[in-house]
């Protein structure tokens, strides 16, 4: 497997990278930086290579995936690459009729509302996503000592798209199932946990050095509902990949009240959005976890001086942490000036050089 501890097989080329050291809560030469959604629409070179190719089709072409994944690493000198794909790719790969509509997001043709609808979800096999294995192989060869982060959508966030049929602000259909038919809900999330685990395993076995589980919309839930109806499915995913020894990152938006539970679900690193300062987040999460975050992505529209002041605030709040990976509190927004991101990465590196 990709990243054995020194007690296991010999460490890989990425083992001593600042990113993996920070995830393991070891001392680092500088605070590592990467940006959620660093690949994609903020980069002119992305628009160029994607022109005329639908989003989901682009995810099935290994050379294109590798190129798009590498673009932000070349440009911003970030400490990790994130595999270019989407959370709905494994669902598409097992035959769910869905598409990503530009400016909208994932749209599902036949939303899952009844037990019979569960038949849309069969198991994911490595053969379904051979292009992922191929693309990760191309990437790790090219990346050398820079780690590649694999990722997947968490069961709740995937279910929110499958049950609603598309993006939602309120998740009323998903929550109606969660409250009204808890058995169907549990079976849906369990099936999604298996698909998600299989998707992550393929990425790790092909060479990904870490994985991030995106439960982007979990912030819609109260802690009691998260614990009762969601947490065990995410824990099943983390357990399924625990044996590889690669750091597991757990991220959501608006999850200030869930941070402790999201750590408890089995993460090594907990992602934090900008609503909770990192020192307070560390108190909520407790010892034994690294933190990732939490620069407000909208600040990148405010000019270099403001960006540096706010970056310093993030670093100051992180000063007492056991391990810190600098990131945004959510993804790069499409209209962000890429030069502002390059400058931010450089600022964090310079400011934290030890
Ligand atoms: O650089 C990276 O972070 C890797 C690429 C990545 C994409 N999607 C590519 C993408 C990642 C990590 C994702 C994850 C993802 N997809 C999440 C979790 C992360 C988050 O932001 O919370 C979610 C919720 C989705 C679902 C999804 N896919 C949305 C909401 C959208 C945006 C719709 C829009 O057009 O505004 C997508 C489409 C998508 N995924 C694009 C990209 C580059 C844009 C498609 C395009 O270029 O036309």
From TrEMBL:
E.C. number(s) listed in UniProt: 4.1.1.37
Residues that, per the record, bind substrate: 37-41, 86, 161, 216, 330
Alphabetical keyword list: Cytoplasm, Decarboxylase, Lyase, Porphyrin biosynthesis
Domain named Uroporphyrinogen decarboxylase (URO-D): residues: 32-41, 149-165
Keyword Cytoplasm: yes
A GO cellular component annotation in the UniProt record: cytosol
Site (Transition state stabilizer) location in chain: 86
Gene3D superfamilies linked: 3.20.20.210
Catalytic activity: uroporphyrinogen III + 4 H(+) = coproporphyrinogen III + 4 CO2
Primary location recorded for the protein, binned into one broad class: cytoplasm
Pathways per UniProt: Porphyrin-containing compound metabolism; protoporphyrin-IX biosynthesis; coproporphyrinogen-III from 5-aminolevulinate: step 4/4
GO biological process terms on file: protoporphyrinogen IX biosynthetic process
Record family assignment: Belongs to the uroporphyrinogen decarboxylase family.
Biological role stated in the UniProt entry: Catalyzes the decarboxylation of four acetate groups of uroporphyrinogen-III to yield coproporphyrinogen-III.
Protein name: Uroporphyrinogen decarboxylase
Species this protein is from: Streptomyces roseirectus
Gene label: hemE
């Amino acid at each position: 497997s990709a990243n054995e501890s020194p007690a296991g097989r010999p460490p890989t080329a990425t083992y001593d990278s600042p990113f993996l050291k920070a995830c393991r809560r070891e001392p680092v030469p500088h605070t590592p930086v990467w940006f959620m959604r660093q690949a994609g629409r903020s980069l002119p070179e992305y628009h160029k290579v994607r022109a005329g190719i639908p989003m989901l089709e682009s995810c099935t072409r290994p050379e294109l995936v590798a190129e798009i994944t590498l673009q932000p690493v070349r440009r911003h000198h970030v400490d990790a690459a994130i595999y270019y794909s989407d959370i709905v790719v494994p669902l598409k790969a097992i035959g769910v009729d869905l598409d990503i509509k530009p400016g909208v997001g994932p749209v599902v043709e036949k939303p899952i509302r009844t037990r019979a609808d569960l038949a849309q979800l069969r198991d994911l096999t490595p053969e379904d996503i051979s292009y992922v294995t191929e693309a990760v192989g191309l990437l790790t060869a090219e990346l050398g000592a820079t780690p590649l982060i694999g990722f997947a959508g968490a069961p709740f966030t995937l279910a929110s798209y499958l049950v609603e049929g598309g993006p939602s602000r309120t998740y009323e259909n998903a929550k109606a199932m969660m409250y009204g038919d808890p058995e169907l809900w549990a079976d849906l999330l369990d099936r999604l946990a298996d698909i998600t685990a299989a998707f992550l395993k393929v990425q790790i076995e092909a060479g990904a050095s870490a994985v991030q589980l995106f439960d982007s919309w979990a912030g819609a839930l109260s802690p009691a509902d998260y614990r009762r109806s969601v947490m065990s499915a995410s824990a099943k995913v983390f357990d399924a990949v625990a044996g590889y020894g690669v750091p597991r990152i757990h991220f959501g938006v608006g999850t200030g009240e869930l941070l402790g539970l999201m750590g408890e679900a089995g993460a090594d690193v907990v992602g934090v959005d900008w609503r909770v300062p990192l020192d307070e987040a560390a108190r909520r999460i407790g010892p034994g976890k690294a933190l990732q975050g939490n620069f407000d992505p909208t600040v990148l529209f405010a000019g270099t001086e403001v960006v540096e002041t706010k970056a310093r605030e993030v670093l100051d709040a992180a000063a007492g942490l056991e391990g810190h990976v600098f990131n945004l509190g959510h993804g790069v927004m499409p209209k962000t000036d890429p030069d502002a991101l390059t400058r931010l990465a450089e600022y964090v590196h310079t400011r934290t050089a030890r």
